[in-house]
Specification:
This protein is about 75% helix and about 0% strand. It has helices spanning about 1-25, 25-40, 50-55, 60-75, 85-90, 100-110, 115-125, 130-145, 150-180, 185-200.
Length: about 200
Amino acid sequence: MKILEQSENLRAHIARHAKDFKLSWIQLGQGLYSVWRDKLYQSWEYEKFEDYVVRELGLKKPLALKLVKTYFFVEQDEPVYLKKEFAEARDTSVIPGYESLDVLRKARGHKELTREDYTKLRRDIFEKGREASLVRKDLTAMIRERKNIDPKQAREERHEQSVRRLMAALRTFKKDMEALKSADPQIVHEAEELLERLESR
């Protein structure tokens, strides 16, 4: 009985930490948004916001900007997410992370989408905890259904998909090489630079 109780306590403990982990981006996003909005980095002797996040925080510029934009979107359009009660009332598995919310932010600006489309995406994210990659696929499918795609646009979309696949391969390569420490550091560095260029397109 004691072992079972300890097991359940550990289970609850891990679930709490997983929930905290999924929500931990909020404070960072809020802080970065304040720094960006009020240009506080200038008083810290940085000329640009990206200089501050890269040099002082060790964050990549695309990630920092994504956090800023996603936080602003949530604050303006989905403030319920920021309330303590939101997390407390939900299981860990259905709390959306910032990447899913970033997809929802992008969906908000698509003129091709109907209100019903947005509502469906929102429900999938907020009520079902649907992963960002799946929500992104849903969003792409919805947009494709709502408009006629000309050959040039279709080529551009195929190009974009190829770039995303390359980025995924570069991330996997970088992660594997860092873990195994078996690659030439110069090659890993070049892979990082290429990935950063692709992310900031």
